[in-house]
# Entry
Amino acid sequence: MKSTTQKEIVANKDLVAFCGLYCGSCRSYLLGKCPACKDNVKATWCTVRSCCLENSYNSCADCTQMALKDCKKYNNFISKIVGFVLNSNRSACIQRIKEIGTEGFAVEMAELKIQTIKRK
# Structure
């Protein structure tokens, strides 16, 4: 049963999505409508999630196989649609995770109460 009360935004490294979004500030997660990326077993359509799980990555920031801009799984059609809808600069999110770590990123996003770094 889904909760009708909204959760509080808290810093939790487990709420950093594989693609760099912060589920801890997502409306669907906060309203109990989504279990967040890492616990969403129904998200089999997500190639980023599948790749990270297969390679035991916390996020695409851990990948050393190729540059993010060259990754067809990260830069697929669905990802571009999500990025457009959220006005998201997911690449900037992944870069920020590389700079300050997953936990630091979770803290920063929770403090700012944002799900993504916006495109400029």
About this structure: Residues 13-112 form one domain.
